[in-house]
Amino acid sequence: GNSVTQMEGPVTLSEEAFLTINCTYTATGYPSLFWYVQYPGEGLQLLLKATKADDKGSNKGFEATYRKETTSFHLEKGSVQVSDSAVYFCEVYQGGSEKLVFGKGTKLTVNP
Amino acid sequence: DAGVIQSPRHEVTEMGQEVTLRCKPISGHNSLFWYRQTMMRGLELLIYFNNNVPIDDSGMPEDRFSAKMPNASFSTLKIQPSEPRDSAVYFCASTKTAMGELFFGEGSRLTVL
Hints:
The structure holds 2 protein chains of 2 kinds.
Chain A: E1 3-6, E2 11-14, E3 19-21, E4 23-26, E5 32-38, E6 45-50, E7 56-59, E8 62-65, E9 75-77, E10 86-94, E11 99-102, E12 106-111
Parallel strand pairs in A: 2-12
Antiparallel strand pairs in A: 1-4, 3-9, 5-6, 5-10, 7-8, 8-9, 10-11, 10-12
Chain B: E1 5-7, E2 10-13, E3 19-24, E4 31-38, E5 42-50, E6 53-56, E7 65-71, E8 74-79, E9 88-95, E10 103-104, E11 108-112
Parallel strand pairs in B: 2-11
Antiparallel strand pairs in B: 1-3, 3-8, 4-5, 4-9, 5-6, 7-8, 9-10, 9-11
C-alpha cells in the first residue's frame, strides 16, 4: 500500500535560516501530494499542494516540488521566522482508490 | 463558509465514564475522517466515512470505541468506558471524494483521569 516517510524531528533553527523537511513516498500511478501545518493548539491546515509531476506548490514562502523520479516532495523555505514554529505533515493521496496517508509529522522550532 | 466544527473543545472526565465527541463537516463534503493525536503515537486514523457509510474502521482501537454518521452533517465518536490511555486530541476532518485535501476541525482535547 501507499506510505510516506517524513524526516524525523524535532528540527531547531535560528531565524532566517534555510529550512528543508524531507518527504518521500511510495505509491502507484500519480498521487497528489500535500503539506499541512499545525500550529500549537490548532488542527492541521493545508500549506501547499501539487497534483502532477514537476508541479511546484508554494505558499507563505514555502515551496515543494513533485519529483516523480525520486518519489519526493521536500518542503523548503529560504528564510524561516519564529512564527513558522509548528508541526509539518506530508500527505499522499491516491485518487480512485481513495487512499490517503500522512507522514508522522516534523516539529520545527525557530529561535529568534 | 463555516469550517469543520467539533465539540466539545475540551473534556475532562473520570475513568469509566462515557465520552461523546461531535463533528459537523463542511456542507457539501461527503467524506469524513476521525483522527487521534498523541505525543507518543502521532496522528492516527481511527475511521473513515464516505457518503455516511463507514469504509475503513481498522484504526478503531477496540470495542470501547464506536463512531456513527447518521446524516451528512453530523458524526459522533463515542468511548465507553473511557480509560486514561484514551487521553488525546481527537480531530475530525472532511473533504469531497477525489479531492485529497482534508479540512480539519480544531480538535477535542480529552483528558481521562
